[in-house]
Amino acid sequence: MTSLIALIDDDASFRMALFESLSSLGYEVRDFASAEEFVAQPDDASSYDCVITDIHMPGMSGIALQKMLERRGSRVPVIMVTGRGEPGLEAIAASTGAVCVLRKPFATNTLIETIERAIKP
Question: How many domains is the chain built from?
Answer without folding.
Answer: 1
